[in-house]
Amino acid sequence: MIDGKASNMAIKRSPRYPRIDLSRAVSLVERLYDGAHQSKVDADSAAQVIGYTNSGSGAAAVALGALRQYGLVDGLRGDLSVSDLAMRIMQPMKDEERVEALHEAANKPEIFSSILEQFEGGLPKADAPITAFLVRQLGFSQKGASEVIGVLRDTFSNLPDMPVVQAPAIPIDSSESAATPDIPIKPQEAFGSSPVPVSSELIVLPLGSGCKAELRFVGEVTPKAYERLIRHLQLLQENLDD
């Protein structure tokens, strides 16, 4: 006879997350591309191409699941194929394209995006805040939280830095500079009441899920410097629109 108390105990299951880091996932999709190119294949064939007996094994299910979550394959069980995102990683037109595609893939898993959004685009150095968020807000078990943090940190620690886009130089009007004296101000004053680090420290501005901007002020920060920064950003936007 099953004890009533024991029968009411449910096994706590963690939400879905990739069980392998992005570097490992990329190596697996490279195998898939070598064996099948971008042809559609069933899950069993895909599992065999990347080195497993069939898709029913636990290890194969973990691998294929991770490829889906990182956006490296398209389709369901019967028609898997290497995705365009994976092709941009494996066969980039230029180095910047590969870097951008790797960052896009790293932000694909919903759980990773949720964590980054919770911590305003960055990751705490300690695991405890992330664990608390996963357990209390997303229903993870302690073990599941530990595993996802490990995969998350491995994924993002191995990402190459995003390319720096240089904006066209803005000519400085000497008469304008003379008319408006450059009086140093604190970054906090320019951004209102939001807590912002002092000059020379990195400022991280969350811009949405999986997107952030990083600013670093070096030297005295003046109203005129902020105006020029805004004009640089406007030029960058115009370049993207073009």
Specify the number of helices.
Answer: 12
Order of helices and strands: HHHHEEHHHHHHHEEH
User: Which structural class matches the secondary elements?
Assistant: mainly alpha
For the report, how would you describe the main beta sheet? 2 strands, antiparallel
Into how many domains do the coordinates divide? 2
Give the SSE layout.
Blueprint: H1 4-7, H2 22-36, H3 43-49, H4 58-69, E1 73-74, E2 81-82, H5 84-90, H6 95-106, H7 110-118, H8 128-138, H9 142-157, H10 174-179, H11 187-190, E3 202-208, E4 211-216, H12 223-241
Antiparallel strand pairs: 1-2, 3-4
What's the short story on this structure?
The chain has 12 helices and 4 strands. It has 242 residues and is mainly alpha-helical.
Describe the structure.
- The chain is mainly alpha-helical and 242 residues long.
- It has twelve helices and four strands, in the order H-H-H-H-E-E-H-H-H-H-H-H-H-E-E-H.
- It has helices spanning 4-7, 22-36, 43-49, 58-69, 84-90, 95-106, 110-118, 128-138, 142-157, 174-179, 187-190, 223-241; strands at 73-74, 81-82, 202-208, 211-216.
- Helix 8 crosses helix 9 (142-157).
- The longest helix has 19 residues, at 223-241.
- The model is unreliable at 1-10 and 188-200 (pLDDT under 50).
